[in-house]
Predict the structure.
Amino acid sequence: MARKIFKRPPILWFWPVTVAGMLMAAFSVVPGTPVPQVASGIFTDVTVAGGITWKHFNGESPDAHLIEAKNGGAAFFDFDQDGLLDIFLVNGGETPRGKSSTPVRNALYRNLGNGKFEEIAAKAGVDHISFYGIGVAVGDYDNDDYPDLLVTGYPERALFHNNHDGTFSEVAGKAGLKGSGRWSTGAAWFDYDRDGWLDLVICHYGQMSFASAPRCEFGGTPSYCAPSSYGKGAPLALYRNNGNGTFADASTTSGLDKNIGRGLGVVAVDVDDDGWTDLFVARDGSPNLLLTNQRNGAFRDFAMQAEVAYDPNGAAKAGMGIDAADVNGDGRPDFVMTAFNNEQHSLFINPGRFPFEDWTIASSLGFLTMSYVGWGTHFLDYDNDGIMDLLIVSGHVNKIVELTSSNVTYKELPLLLRNDGKGSFRNMQETAGPAFQTRYDARGLAVGDYDNDGDVDATLVRLQDTPVLLRNNVGGNSSWVGFQLVGTKSNRDAIGAKLTVRLGERKLVRWITGGASIFSSHDNRVVFGLGSSPGPPATSVEIRWPNGVAQTIDGLAPKRYHKVVEPQ
Amino acid sequence: MISEFRNIGQSRSVGHFHLHKLHLLVRESCFIRFASAALGFWLTLPGSAELLNAQNSLARQHASKADQLVRTGDLKGAEAEMRQAAELSPKNPEYLMRVGLILTMQERPKVAAIFFERALKLDPNNLTVRRHLAGSQWQSGNLAASQENLELILKATPRDSEVLLLLGMVLMDAERFPAAHAAAQKAAKAMPSSDQAYAVRGMAEMRMLRYTEAAKSYGQAVELNPKAPDVNLGLAMSLWAAGNISESFAIFEQGLKRFPEDAYHCLEYGRLLLKSAKPDDSTAETRAIALLQTALTLNRSLPEAHYLLGDLALRRGSPEKALQHLEQAVKLDPGSSKIHFALSRTHRRLGRMEDAAREEGVFQTLKAREEAAPAAPLLVGGLE
């Protein structure tokens, strides 16, 4: 089997070709490294080849604490800034009657650039946390060019500050993010007040105590209880970045703490195209939230008006994973939300006004996901045809479910759903590769181009098992152009930026989002698929930076990543 | 505390409303059979000649007259005669029991229970009277007392299949599904030709989310009694819940032929067709609409059929049409949160923001009540 070689490419600096508003920008060209592919489906499981052997541990026990079923975060991020995406994996933890024979550790896999990874979590100081781990959110909160890590969990959180030397320091207490006693789940970095510093929203699930957890059973076998057993939920938290390494709790001033519920997934994206980043929060058996940024430090929930709070029958689905992308090519962010079996995952189309349109049925998503308990989900243009497709990973929470039904299994297949460009999806199971014919008990899902070949790869976390690293084999067959945005006035990660590429008559719009999927973080570079190779010889991009500044760059070569620095 | 599937439908059941409806249909069918069983039992009782041997001659005459009237179907007349007999011989438990039986035949379980209780006071060891009392108590919703009486009988006669079956129904109503299942299982073993025993077992399995087993139980019930619409409906619904969609639809089709007057077959088939239809399957949607309309022709008081038609109209961009159906639905079922939710969405589309806000308020109030549910296992999402 051919091995991919994807060393860090040389960075070539260019001065801007076209700058809107007479602003100056710098961008570099990062050549992609097309490599021969061995066709074994759209994705190949390269976990073993990559040397990834870490195993997840969730403390599964006869007490069936629901937290055992709701964890498993993953992140793609370049912690050492060597141009190669590394992988961070959050472990769960022990429970009173679910003990591990070895210490429970997180993993940090350093990308060696030859398809192999090296586990260095202990060396980097991110292997150990003193609480039950759930999710991860990556963000350069101090704008020092090196990404930092927030780890959520119960009853605390950790903030690992990147020391630039391959190590991290845990600073949650000092930063004011400890969150003692709370069950934190999904989190997203974003700059809600546009001051150029990343702020943080954190979802909380409910009342949790290992000592007095609710108990349920099915035919004498302990089973996880329904979410409502954990109370009505807990409020969202918003932390405003003070710009000095500390955060101020803005949950009350922003109004976010009024939103009590069982939050799991969150995505930060500009829903109404006003240049201010909004939030969509997927909640488990609680109505979802569509929190629009009021541009004055406050948020207002429009989920009822948008008709995304409940399903059409007024039932709050088991909202778990969430992502935003333009599904139907109208330039607006639409939303996918994963849910429980028999609920159908939701697809909400944003028509630029309220209510949104529920395309769950019309898109085939409902039909395709009827028997799945979906967790991580992310839009990705796997074949670089310029249309956002969808990846979903799944797994039921109770093993005994197989006793009840012939169409629901405990371990479930990942789904690669191809978008026809009009928002209708088709299951690519037959050609997606063996991983898509293998059942997993999956949770977190992160996407990113770890081999820098211009197509988006993925990794998923399996409970009590090794993760799965999936290499994309087909995107490189098409033309593409990629961007790494570096904010200067805006936050360094450019979370909240909107990018538009014109491809013939089509206008491709992408956003750099915060959060997304569930418990996970993603490559914050943006790849635009440009269709069949060789595609256009050059393309241009319009960027709206998070602080509102617009910029246009022309003459961009395809099959390259372009590093664009925000004009000063 | 470990949840024993109490109120499981509150959070994540397979269409709690629809299972509840099925439960009610099974229950209703049992009630009807219960009334006719009372008549059957009456006919096995000592007839006029034996009654004449009783002590009070006038009471004897009234009792004898009551017996004749029961046999001719004049239950009101029989009740009056039997009540007189019981008044004239107040220490005769047989007369009191007979009044209770006539009341049971008239489906008046609360009053019947009073007479059975009086009879039992006079003859506390009479298991027959206790069984009738338990039945009346079940029918009138006094589940704890009914269960207590049935368990007393089972102590004396542990294999009494009728009592086991009745206990199964009582426990179903009490939402103690595993216990109900155990009772129904014993009843089915004791009387393998009872479709009711299998139907109750299937119902318990449905409520315990054991769909594959439920489909088997209902399959046996249908084999034993292909003429019972509730049992056929249970089979079709359990097959669908177990993921055997095409088999389920085949059973629905059979049901439509066998029971053309049964509105519930049309309603549930229409609902599940809509639920399972692929987006490009306009045939399924058209069929579903026709079925729902037929359901309403057969039974105008089905809020669910109005709701589904309203929801579909809303989805198809016809809020005016949706409003017509939803207004009918809410009249029939004002306590349904989903109908108020749909009304709120409809009013919003029609630009009636005040009405939308009002309906949303009702929805939120009802929703808050629904959410106050105890712990339940996490197995399946809602299918409403």
Observations:
- The CA atoms of residues 8 and 83 of chain A lie 5 Å apart.
- The mean pLDDT of chain A is 92.
- Chain A touches chain B through 52 residues (CB under 8 Å).
- The first helix of chain A runs from residue 121 to 124.
